Amino acid sequence: MGETVWLFDSFLFSASRACCSPFAIFIQIQWMSNLLNSCSWVGSCGLCQVSSNDEQNREIKQIKESMKSGNSLAFLYHDINDLEHSNQVKLPRVSVVMPLKGFGEHNLHNWRSQVTSLYGGPLEFIFVVESTEDPAYHAVTRLKSDFKDDVDIKIIVAGLSTTCSQKIHNQLIGVERMHKDSKYVLFLDDDVRLHPGSIGALTAEMEKNPKIFIQTGYPLDLPSGSLGSYCIYEYHMPCSMGFATGGKTFFLWGGCMMMHADDFRNDNYGVISGLRDGGYSDDMTLAAIAGNHQRLITSPPVAVFPHPLASDLSFSRYWNYLRKQTFVLESYISRVNWIMNRALFSSHCYLSWGFVAPYCMAIIHIAAALRVASKEHPPEETTFTSGGFLLVSSLAVCTIVELLSMWNLTRIEVHLCNMLSPEAPPLSLASFNWGLVFIALVVDNFLYPISAFRSHFTQSINWSGIRYHLKDGKISKIDRSKDIGPNYTDLGGKHLYGKKGAPTKVSFLSSLARSLQQWHQPKKFDV
Questions:
Q1: DSSP, res 83
Q2: Bridge partner list, 298
Q3: What residues form DSSP beta bridges with 499?
């Protein structure tokens, strides 16, 4: 027993010395610097609230000033004169296209927030489902009957996709059926919870700058309490940093995209063909088209939408979601797009595991320090553990600053959402568990490269019970079967096939084990 302890201590101190080598110190300092750079980027929207670049704080200030001036509808328009009838009748027609798949706990509330928009111009809502057997079809039919003729709602059955993803197929069918006089088309996911003035704000920006190709927004994830939901929150946070500038961006979120309707009528820049002919991801494809043609993508500061995550979002469902997110880097529409995706793939994997490495080293340093404190050791061991403790302390400070930055950015977004939806129950940070946020930071960055490599070598993915196979960056084969995937979607926990059958309870470790077993078997289906 004593020899085993001695061997363990010897290994531990050797590892601690290795982690204090110049190369290891360089790695740790490099990633702590990256962490602080990330904090400074978050800080531009969070900690540094007086910064001139803080678009969201400026928006909050404008709303408050308008309300003080007597404009109780400042969450719709800063200038109350914009609400006059003479201005409202000039607003352009907008078609809202929503591809649906399944029905979950938050869908009905989200749909109601969409169709009860306070946009003053002509507005139509086009809900597109794959078939009448989809649970979403019956739910949205009831929604239409509730509003009767008060809201222009159309329900379209799109049928099965054959050349692209089902979501893209539904979107294109919806575009075909939109009103001939629509000037703009707004694509929304069914898990987007709109503010009363969101459509008006997006339209106003399009009217101000006709050169805008796509206007987008981003989700404010509201974790449900599980580790999986916090991993989703952490995964989306860097995206919200990019969107939060309130101006030009190359980020694009498929949950909210407003475009010119004529771009689809005339297939400008190849938007129809690019999506239809093998398209897997709507946002990545459109972002690539925008990049190829130097078209403008923007995001106004008010385009942040509450995104409540399913109350039963398990870790295995988070893993499935992460797989779908990394898989988008395997799809591309041009050589330049392929190069960009490979660069994103490489840099993200490098940065993710580089983020995790200092924490692994910190565990070694802490274990070595505890062993030194437990009994007498040679002076040189104490020296090495003291150096390691200094690195651990520096990492702890950087981590605290990072969490504070995330907290403050989320706080500002929550405050903005509450002001933009004064009629809704107020959102709060009280339920956030910041210990789980830290764990999610480490877990998500550790798993991302594993998921990315899995996607790269299999070239196939299961998305809501449909397995897509890629070849040369485009969908080449589509397999459908209720036995292929789970009965529930990943984030919203939506029923995909009605109430028949219970969801299969699969642990994350089981899911990951199956993925590793299928690493070299891309044609097999995971359950």
A1: G
A2: 215, 248
A3: 497
